[in-house]
Amino acid sequence: MNAFMVWARARRPVLTRDHPQVACTDISVRLGTEWTALTEDQKVPYYQESWRLKVIHQQQFPGSTWTYKPPRRKKECAESERPSTRDSVQAQEEEPWSYDASIPHQVRRLETGIFVEL
Predict the structure, then answer these.
(1) Residue 92 lies in a domain
(2) Is the pTM of this model over 0.90?
(3) Is residue 9 domain-shared with residue 55, that is, in the same domain?
(4) Which residues lie in Basic and acidic residues bias regions (predicted)?
């Protein structure tokens, strides 16, 4: 937990008690502006507490590290693998619905792969 989070954990209940009609997003904005307005000397105790919490966490979970894992990208189909629009329309004209007993009766699958609720 970083220093801002340590400070906000103590400050947020005070703001919500004093301003119960204000939305959570506005409270968060106000917390950010108040934190920015603090001097470095005022922030020191919160930095110390965040480091203390970090040490405790490392003692409780030795060897655990957090690494960034970027989101997986969708695989793009090659042009030859993509179904053509003309084939999809032709399949709908011939037999628009396919029946599969494993699919519940409320949902039927079009040949194009689009699910329609009946």
Answers:
(1) yes
(2) no
(3) yes
(4) 76-85
